Amino acid sequence: MKLYDSELKVMDVLWRQGDTTAKAIARELGEQVGWNVNTTYTLIKRCIGKGAIERIEPNFQCRALVSKEQVQEEETQELIDKVFDGSADKLFASLLGGRRVSQEQLARLRAMIDEMD
């Protein structure tokens, strides 16, 4: 499922607040990014069409059907495939970019790698 930046703003409200009304999402995004109600409702309906949000009545309640972690994983994999020829190694090397890594950071990275085994 591909979610665009504007759709991710809608999802972010749901991930932070949990189930909430479309009206509340529109109010928050109106304050945050200046969107009008129609723009927000259009984006919510797009997310519903993609299966990312469930609409619950009454009051047009919205519930996220995908977690932030799922979206992060999919977006990361798409980036790796598109920009790094499917190689996580190349992504990792690019992230480090010749920078010095502290012993603490190295220990955390090793622990993450060990968890994957």
Describe the protein's topology.
Blueprint: H1 5-17, E1 20-21, H2 22-33, H3 37-50, E2 53-56, E3 61-64, H4 68-83, H5 88-96, H6 103-116
Antiparallel strand pairs: 1-3, 2-3
Structure write-up:
The protein is mainly alpha-helical. The chain has six helices and three strands, in the order H-E-H-H-E-E-H-H-H. The protein has helices at residues 5-17, 22-33, 37-50, 68-83, 88-96, 103-116; strands at residues 20-21, 53-56, 61-64. A three-stranded antiparallel sheet has the order 1-3-2. Strand 2 (53-56) and strand 3 form a beta hairpin. The protein is elongated. The two termini are 27 Å apart.
- Estimate the global geometry from the Cα principal axes: elongated
Percentage beta strand: 5-15%
Please list the strands of the largest sheet in the order they lie side by side: 1-3-2
Helix vs. strand class: mainly alpha
Low-pLDDT stretches: none
Radius of gyration: 18 Å
Query: Roughly what percent helix?
Result: 55-70%
Kindly state the mean pLDDT as a whole number?
Answer: 93
Query: How would a textbook summarize the main sheet?
Result: 3 strands, antiparallel
Q: How would you spell out the order of helices and strands?
A: HEHHEEHHH
Care to count the β-strands?
Answer: 3
Helical run tally: 6
Intertermini distance: 27 Å
